Amino acid sequence: MKLTLGVDVACRAAHQASLAGVDGTLVWSGRKFFTRPADLERLWDDLDLDDDCELVVVMEPTRNAWVPLASWFRRRGAKVVLVPTTQSADLRAYYSKHTKNDHLDSKILARLPLLHPDGLREHTDTGPAAPLRRVVKQRSSIVKRRTAIFQRLDAQLELLGPARYDALGSNYGKAALAVLARYADPTALSKLGHARLTRFLIRHSRGAWRDTHATALLAAARESVQLWGSEGIDFAELGADIAVEAEQAQVLTEQIEDLDERIANLYAEADPDGVIASAPGVGPVTSAVIAGRIGDPHRFTSLAVIRAYSGLVPKVAQSGLSEHRGGLTKAGDALMREALFAAADQARKTDPQLAAKYVRLMNSDRHHDSALCHIAAILLTRIATCWRTNTPYQLRDTDGRPITETEGRDIVREHHQVDRQTRINAAKKRQSQRLKNRTGREQKESQSAPASRPANTNSTNTSAA
């Protein structure tokens, strides 16, 4: 016998469960419980399962509240199925048109196998409970926060003139952040002196920055003072603002380094043979992102499902004999899609087969981003195939001959390059398409600039009535 338990998962309130038989008849409904061992044990006793009874638990992936529930039911031998919220919403509209309530939702989830039995796939992955999946997402978030801080530092340093920016560089390493955190004020930096500044730089750069950088920083400080004069800007207040941003960047940099160490250890456990890292264009961070966000590659029924999970597949609208393909679905995991896009841009410079595909796409009036999305989907398919068979990625020429990475770069450089005019034409076409899709007033340099043609208005002529 087969029973279906529909669970409407709540984050802070009580969950609600309904039990249905194989024909959709409700055995009971509206049982409230929390994610506590005692509550779960009472719920399990209420199920009163026989030895030959199969239990399917259907729930929506509500934030992370579903994860411990799914793990608990799996340990008890139940089959756990996650249902997209859009699918349950469509069924809810069919069953009833009155206001949504939790009691109704649990009944809908319990009856869902009757509507779409082929779409119910067992969920065996731990999801957000997997540490590698969490840590790569956390690293991505911190990197973006630090990038935003660097952009604000760029804007603030522009107030001090170009010399300070040139002296520190644009990568904002540990030594540069240390200088900005302590001596962003050019007057304070000038008072520090050449000898003490040199020792400061040697200590914070581990000897990479010495007399030359100290001389450039002191010259930049004097230039900033000359630029503003005696009654220009409050250097102390500006220095305090820059110091706040630099100190935040220092903390985030230390956190990123700690996360990189954790990611390396977790990736070694997830992919001990380094199959993902053997692919071209895939570095330590990208390989960890792919391993962490995919999880178990065997949980996908086919390679097409993996591509769909990445969102790197086009939208397809079919009607009769007509078929229209639109832009990317962008469904699934956004972080993995972002990592694959960057990896594809590097892989096409090493893998001749991917490079040849990229050239063909560009010659067919594709723009660079569109071509890279195709390459990213192909790269993901190859990585997943290698991962599932535990076979390292093998670079091959267009004739199938195995080659080394150095040979691949040389072949791509000699035979698979896009000429400059093709890139210019593709960029112009994309810009033209963007302008066509715009509505309203035409693009102007400023809102107050005069239009190049009269406004298209439909005024009413009352005298002609």
Automatic annotation (TrEMBL):
Coiled-coil intervals: 242-269
Name this protein carries in UniProt: IS110 family transposase
Keyword annotations: Coiled coil
Positions of region (Disordered): 422-465
All copies of domain Transposase IS110-like N-terminal, residue ranges: 5-161
Domain (Transposase IS116/IS110/IS902 C-terminal) ranges: 276-358
Biased composition (Basic residues): 426-438
The keyword Flavoprotein is assigned to this record: no
InterPro entries attached to this UniProt entry: Transp_IS110-like_N, Transpos_IS110, Transposase_20
Pfam name, any one: DEDD_Tnp_IS110
Biased composition (Polar residues): 446-465
